[in-house]
Design a protein that fits this description.
This protein is an alpha/beta fold and 215 residues long. Helices cover 38% and strands 16% of the residues. It is built from six helices and seven strands. It is globular.
């Protein structure tokens, strides 16, 4: 098995995020043991706030390569994101370079992070893009649902764009599951069925995570 592209940088990003997140907030991580210790895996994360990605980078037991909108890869920030193993994706249409990079991460036994809603929403997995199902069926990698709760809290903010400093943010990992048929078919119908199944599992996990955390 080859080393995932940017693996060394992703480890550095993991350690950096761990320090920053624990310094700024009080993350509570539940179920991290559910992330397979080795081999390819996809983390499917709800997305209500810009800090959700950095929080997960620090909370995950393994370094994560996130698919991040191309608009963020500008100037020093873009250089930094590339250095820590993050992947640029053009959300305007199929991005072959991003697809190739993401599949290379999984092919190398790495961890791919995806916000399956495609952009920031209420973070409830109400609408999923087909990309998550495609990567899961194409690679055969299991999906681990992740709920980040509390990042959208507004009460007590000192900096308007950030969650309350030293506030609690919960990161809840769910059980890994397969996206669809073992045959790995990637027809339109197979992707649609897989997306429906994935959405059911993600929304179920989110409901359970809210119950467990009282969020």
């Amino acid at each position: 098995m080859t080393t995932p592209p940017g693996a060394r940088g992703a480890w550095a990003g993991h350690r950096l995020a761990l320090g920053v997140v624990h310094g700024a907030w009080r993350p509570r991580v539940l179920g991290a043991w559910r992330v397979p210790a080795s081999g390819p895996v996809i983390l499917a994360v709800n997305h209500a706030h810009n800090v959700d990605g950095p929080v997960l980078l620090g909370a995950s037991p393994r370094p994560v390569h996130f698919l991040i909108k191309r608009e963020a890869f500008v100037g020093p920030l873009g250089t930094f994101l590339t250095a820590i193993g993050q992947l640029s994706v053009d959300r305007a249409g199929p991005d072959r370079a991003a697809i190739t990079s993401a599949l290379a991460v999984l092919g190398g036994g790495g961890v791919l992070g995806i916000f399956p809603e495609g952009t920031r929403t209420r973070g409830d997995f109400a609408t999923l893009q087909a990309g998550l199902a495609y990567f899961a069926l194409r690679s055969g990698a299991p999906i681990v649902p992740v709920a980040v709760l509390g990042s959208g809290e507004r009460k007590g903010r000192v900096i308007s764009a950030l969650p309350p400093l030293r506030g609690r943010i919960d990161v809840v990992f769910g059980d890994p599951f397969a996206a669809g048929e073992e045959s790995g078919r990637r027809t339109g119908a197979a992707l649609a069925r897989a997306t429906e199944r994935i959405q059911e599992r993600l929304t179920g996990h989110l409901k359970d995570a809210r119950r467990r955390t009282g969020r």
